[in-house]
Amino acid sequence: MLRRIFASLAAACLIVNLPLIPVLAQQSYKMQPVAIQSRWAKEVAPDNSLPDYPRPQMERKEWKNLNGLWDYAITPATATKAPAKYDGKILVPFPLESALSGVKKTLTPDQRLWYHTTVDIRKSGNEKILLHFGAVDWQTDVWVNDQKAGTHTGGYTEFSFDITNLVKNGSNSIVLKVYDPSDKGVGPHGKQVLAPANIYYTPSSGIWQTVWLENVPVQYISDLLLTPDIDQQTLNVVVEAPQGMSVEVAASLAGKPAGSIKGAANTPLRLKIADPQLWTPANPTLYDLSVKLLKDGKIADEVKSYFGMRKISVAKDGKGQDRIFLNNKPYFNLGTLDQGFWPDGLYTAPTDEALAFDIRAVKAMGFNTIRKHIKVEPARWYYWADKLGMLVWQDMVSPNHGLPAGAKPAFEQQCRETIAQLRNHPSIVTWVLFNEKWGQYDQQRLTEWMKRTDPSRLVNGHSGEYLYVNEKLRSPSPNAYVSADMTDVHSYPNPMDALHIPGKARVLGEFGGIGVFIPEHQWNTNSAWGYITEKPAALKAKYSIMNQHLQLLERQGLSGSIYTQPFDVEGEQNGLITYDREVVKIPFAVLRKIHAPLNPDMGAMPDITAADADLTDPTETYSQLLQQYIDGDKSPAFLRKMAMYAVQAGDKDAASLAGQDYFKQVKPPYTDDDLRYAMQVTGSTRDTGFRIIVSNAEAIDKAMGARQSTVKIMNLLYQDLIAPSIPEQNANPDWAAIYETLKPYGAAGDEIYLRAKTIYLLNKQDKASFIPVAKEYLSKYGQYSSGSERRRIEALLAN
Q1: Chain-centre distance of CA 308, in angstroms?
Q2: Residue 737: helix, strand or coil by DSSP?
Q3: Would you say the C-alpha torsion 739, 744, 750, 751 has a positive or negative sign?
Q4: So what's the pLDDT on residue 788?
Q5: Could you tell me the end-to-end alpha-carbon distance of the chain, in angstroms, rounded to an integer?
Q6: Which residues of 15-48 are buried (b: 16+ CB within 10 A; e: fewer)?
Q7: What residues contact residue 493 under an 8 Å CB cut-off, 6+ apart?
Q8: pLDDT (tens digit, 9 = 90+) per residue, 400-434?
Q9: Is-contact 102 128, C-beta < 8 A?
Q10: What's the pLDDT band for 470 if we cut at 50, 70, 90?
Q11: Whole-structure pTM over 0.85, yes or no?
Q12: SUPFAM superfamilies this protein is in (predicted)?
């Protein structure tokens, strides 16, 4: 019992404050080492860092991309002024923790990240100059020429400052200060955590979308609101601009006029579209839109945009079933859950082609829907979804799950900005308010607010309020889907139907999660996490059966399904394609055939490439490698490969031998890659790797994330020095003797001793002994304890 409970608690890597380590200034850009990388990473360079126009739905000619090498520094939180000397160069817009940034460092809550660059500007009296940020995580202060331009809070949405009065002709300085506490703060952070594991991933601090300057007239168009109405053959348009000005709006299709209208700015205009060509995933027709701002009959400003004529609704089919309708016809939303992470760029795709590849790949698999999971992508991702033809269920980025003070207003502000930013994309058909019970509150109020804010789309008020794992219901709730357009169930691994509530469509918001690891295409070779695991050869049959059950559920009224997931992400290896986007685990043509009964009209398929998975049993490959080792191959590259397979095959002894042979050949100072390898292959306190981890803990945490070394050390100490003394619940271990064996390991030894003893006494219900130990544990290490563990201990202390 103790071992089982402890293992679940110790597996959660926890946070420690890292001291600031001075770094020699970098003279040139170099991508940092990473376990695997995508094919596009090699195309990234300071002079071509995401050069594409960042806002396709409101495009002007006069703009300047500021992506490239900036100065960066990491300082203590107490620093109020920009550093006199920076630590080196960072490639914008790749987040600090990513390999493509050229830095690859973790930002802790007690630190601040600073950026600096200079830009040449030529001013004109007839123009304003706007400084745009696609997204910066999380709280950003901006100075231009030492004058405050503004502050923005929120890590997922765009923001701009009018810097006309702050700039001069010639060289201008831009400085940012960024605070990003990730999951330790009050703001929405999505899947980013400071201690990534299982379904949570590496943070993306700082600038992670394009930074750019835009020249606009003194009186200019600030925004567009475009809402199609196919029943009235109309595009409803609002042009936001200075009061009292007029606008001219003209639509065209393939270069031919499709309608125009003139009217006042800031008022609703109805642009008639004769015989509209409807937008669907199979035929994603997009109209071009020209918007002109007029003053005294002359053009004061002009922007280019686009739109799609489509309608999403819930209605009854011919059998009286409430279903999702696209363009007034039942349309099964066959989807997959996309996290939007990259091994080399984390939140930021290496190139625009890479960004588009993900949507092309999902389409080539035969899906018609993507649920964008608690992340907001750059505008160009939605442009590609619009252009290629993909329905999007857009999640709101969930609030901090514990809802600390300030979390609710931060979440609601992020929701407002998200909807305002994405509202014109025809691909987005559903807003998803909450995911499971992740920070859920005021569901009815927020669902109804969302429906009032955007009545043109469906609202999924709570995806997975009913959550089944292995057919056991984990979270039943009354009034689960109040005011929403659909009922939504999560069921792992096998599909199930959602609740039937009249007037609401039924959807399966998540299912599947079949873990299949592909050797040499893994971020973390210690993990092949999935809700269930299969070998590559068995995946096709299992996946086919799941989709056959979807067909049965569709006949019973199911309107949509979301499979987890299209791509592996870090330690979560349950994607249909590997994290580096190199290997598809079921061939594309086979996936399309599996999906065809529920998505018969796929349209033209994109031309993409990925290797088909090798269906050889990995244990057979490992057996061959083990014999090669026995026969004398001790080269470093071979030893690393063999250790990876050994870990996956569960042969810890052989992994340890390979590690020891490797480190006989590799001497300190160790590279980050060496340290990751030590973390991978070390399975005992007796291994050479354990001594390396203990003596290089700080470097490991810098390379892999906060407290990774501490948790590894604690797990091994528990395994070798504590667990043998507690073979069963009724054992009476000599805790004093255990403490003496742990003393040499400092804080890690003390923490694991107090945690293990606390849980042992808790399970034994020895309250008299439990109270002083638990109090000492919480006072020293409670900040690193998981919320559920801490609450359980505190509840017992209170009683």
Answers
A1: 27
A2: helix
A3: negative
A4: 62
A5: 23
A6: bbebeeeeeeebeebebbebbbbbbbbeebeeee
A7: 470, 511, 512, 513, 514, 531, 532, 546
A8: 888 999 999 999 999 999 999 999 999 999 999 99
A9: no
A10: confident
A11: yes
A12: (Trans)glycosidases, beta-Galactosidase/glucuronidase domain, Galactose-binding domain-like
Residue that has been written with the tokens 């923005």 in this structure: 152
Q: Are the CB atoms for 596 and 611 separated by under 8 Å?
A: no
CA nearest to 55, candidates 161, 207, 210, 235: 210
Amino acid 24: pLDDT: 32
Half-sphere exposure (CA, 13 Å, Cβ side) for 237?
A: 31
Q: Residue range 662-671: average pLDDT?
A: 88
How far apart CA 585 and CA 571 sit, in angstroms, is: 17
Residue 720 DSSP class = I
Rg (CA), the chain: 28
Which stretch of DSSP H or E encloses residue 449? helix 443-453
Sign of CA dihedral 221, 227, 230, 232: negative
Mean pLDDT score, 273-281 = 96
Distance CA 694, CA 652 (A): 20
Angle at the Cα of 476 from the Cα atoms of 335 and 188, rounded to 5 degrees:
60
pLDDT in tens, 478-498: 677 999 999 999 999 999 999
Cβ count within 10 A of residue 88: 17
Residue among 756, 784, 637, 524 at smallest CA distance from 1: 756
Q: Which of 492, 417, 491, 428 is nearest to 460 (CA)?
A: 428
Q: Which two tokens stand for residue 259?
A: 């309608």
Cβ–Cβ < 8 Å for 306, 289: yes
